[in-house]
Amino acid sequence: MPVRKRKSAAERKEEIIDATLRLAGEIGPDRLTTEDLAREIGISQPGIFRHFPTKGAIWEAVGRHIGTLLKAKMALAPNRGNLPIDDLRSLVIGQLAFIETTPAIPAILFSRELHAENDQLRAFFASLIASRHRHFSELIEAEITAGRFKPSLDSDDGAYLILALIQGLAMRWSLNNRNFNLPEEGQRLLDMLLKGFMVPKSHRDSNNGGSNE
After folding, report:
1. 111 falls within a domain
2. Global pTM?
3. 21 belongs to a structural domain
């Protein structure tokens, strides 16, 4: 009979985090128990707590894991052009693609019970969203400076609108049993939103002496 290799503490922690994300997407974070995790992994419930002292600590580790995955995903997002608007589109669609492959994220982000019980987790996600907002705002400001977005547009407000699009679309996708392509729908709605940000092409042409961009 083959001898089972004993997993290291780091491997077991990673297994618990992966199982938490998977089960949170299947049954919801508020219903997920440490008994569920132990059964899914095939260890005892005390075995879970040997690696994480509390359930809250598991969720904090899950939050950090999501942040690491998101940063890696954004770093790999293809640069679709040389303009800030291209980077903006790439980042938004990349984030939606990441949510589609990690369906527990909307449920975790919008879990009132989970956040009410874990101030650190709530603060972590608030920091993550704030970082996304700053990046979006910088790209919008660059487009305003270049004359392609309306000078009356507030870059911070524009960034909040894009974040609202991502979050609202992720929630709609989750509530509708993930029955549509999230990045494709995001692309369609983002194009509509960005069109409202843009200076009409006829105005840009007249400001450039009629030259085409």
Report:
1. yes
2. 0.82
3. no
